[in-house]
Write a structure and sequence with these properties.
Elements: E1 3-8, H1 14-26, E2 32-38, H2 41-45, E3 50-53, H3 65-86, E4 92-95, H4 100-109, E5 119-121, H5 124-138, E6 145-146, E7 149-151, E8 159-161, E9 166-169, E10 172-175, H6 176-180, H7 183-187, H8 189-195, H9 197-205, H10 211-226, E11 234-239, E12 252-260, E13 263-266, H11 274-300
Parallel strand pairs: 1-2, 3-4, 4-5
Antiparallel strand pairs: 6-9, 7-8, 9-10, 11-12, 12-13
(2S)-2-hydroxybutanedioic acid binds at residues 98, 125, 198, 201, 208-209.
Length: 301
C-alpha cells in the first residue's frame, strides 16, 4: 500500500528535517509515494490516517519526574487538540515519546471526538526485547518465540511475562518455562534486563534507542493496520475499561492484544499467578500516580 509521509518539527529544525527528507527520497523505498516536511500543524495533521507521535521532552540531568510530566502534558495536549481539529476521526494514533503511556492518555483526552480506542502507545520495543532475550538464551531466532507479554507502563516497573509464551524447538511448540528450565533466571535477571534495557542502551550509546525503536514502531503500526497473525498476540499500551485483569478503568496500560479489522481486543482469560499479580499491580499503581499528576497539569494548562 503506497504511503505519504508527513514530517512535523519545530521551525528551528526545518533545515535538519530537509536532510531527513532527502535521505528518505534517496532510500528509493518502493511504497513511499511522497514526503512532506513542515512546521505547520494544519499541514501535518490534515486528514491523517496514522499519527506517530515521537517527539517529547526528554528527561535531563536534575529534572524531577513531575517537571518532565508537566512539559509533556503541554506538548501532548497541543498534539491532541491538533488531531481533534484536523485529522480524520478514524485516525490511529501511536504515541512513542516518553512517558509514552501517560502522554497517550493526555493526547486522547485532548481529542474527545476521536474514539479513545484509536490511541495506543508503544510497548512493542519491550515486547521485542523480551522475545530477543528468550531467543538468545535458547539459541533460536526471535521469530521462534511468540506470545510474550508486557504488562503496564513503558518504564522500569513494566512486567515482562513469559508464562504464556511459546518457543519453537525442533519444529515443536513448547512453553518457555518448560523449554528453559531456569525459573530463577526467568523470574529475576530476565525481567530486570528487559525493564532496564532502555537505560542500558542510553548508557552505552549516550543516546536513546533508535533503530530498535523504529523497528518496533513498524511492527506496531503494521499490526494495527493489517492485524495480528492467527494464534499470536502482541503487547500494546491501550486504554483499560476496568474489566480486564483487574486493571483500573481509564488507565493507559500495556496488555496482550490481538488486532482484526483495525480494532484491537485484549486477550482475555489468561491465568495469572500471584507472582504476576503483584508485578501487574505495581506498574498499575505507577500509572495511576502519573495519570493523577498529568491530569492536575492538564486542567491547569
Ligand atoms: C527505550 O525504552 O529505549 C526508551 O524509551 C528509553 C528512553 O528513556 O528514551
Amino acid at each position: 500500500m503506497p504511503i505519504i509521509l508527513v514530517l512535523l518539527d519545530i521551525t528551528p529544525m526545518m533545515g535538519v528535517l530537509d536532510g531527513v527528507l532527502m535521505e528518505l527520497q534517496d532510500c528509493a523505498l518502493p511504497l513511499l509515494k511522497d514526503v512532506i516536511a513542515t512546521d505547520k500543524e494544519d499541514v501535518a495533521f490534515k486528514d491523517l490516517d496514522v499519527a506517530i507521535l515521537v517527539g517529547s521532552m526528554p528527561r535531563r540531568d536534575g529534572m524531577e519526574r513531575k517537571d518532565l510530566l508537566k512539559a509533556n502534558v503541554k506538548i501532548f495536549k497541543c498534539q491532541g487538540a491538533a488531531l481533534e481539529k484536523y485529522a480524520k476521526k478514524s485516525v490511529k494514533v501511536i504515541v512513542v515519546g516518553n512517558p509514552a503511556n501517560t502522554n497517550c492518555l493526555t493526547a486522547s483526552k485532548s481529542a474527545p471526538s476521536i474514539p479513545k480506542e484509536n490511541f495506543s502507545c508503544l510497548t512493542r520495543l519491550d515486547h521485542n526485547r523480551a522475545k530477543a532475550q528468550i531467543a538468545l538464551k535458547l539459541g533460536v531466532t526471535s521469530d521462534d518465540v511468540k506470545n510474550v507479554i508486557i504488562w503496564g507502563n513503558h518504564s522500569s516497573t513494566q512486567y515482562p511475562d513469559v508464562n504464556h509464551a511459546k518457543v519453537k524447538l525442533q519444529g515443536k511448540e513448547v512453553g518457555v518455562y518448560e523449554a528453559l528450565k531456569d525459573d530463577s533466571w526467568l523470574k529475576g535477571e530476565f525481567i530486570t534486563t528487559v525493564q532496564q534495557r532502555g537505560a542500558a542502551v542510553i548508557k552505552a550509546r549516550k543516546l536513546s534507542s533508535a533503530m530498535s525503536a523504529a523497528k518496533a514502531i513498524c511492527d506496531h503500526v503494521r499490526d494495527i493496520w493489517f492485524g495480528t497473525p492467527e494464534g499470536e498476540f502482541v503487547s500494546m499500551g491501550v486504554v483499560s475499561d476496568g474489566n480486564s485483569y483487574g486493571v483500573p478503568d481509564d488507565l493507559l496500560y500495556s496488555f496482550p492484544v490481538t488486532v482484526k479489522d483495525k480494532t484491537w481486543k485484549v486477550v482475555e482469560g489468561l491465568p495469572i499467578n500471584d507472582f504476576s499479580r503483584e508485578k501487574m499491580d505495581l506498574t498499575a499503581k505507577e500509572l495511576a500516580e502519573e495519570k493523577e499528576t498529568a491530569f492536575e497539569f492538564l486542567s491547569s494548562a
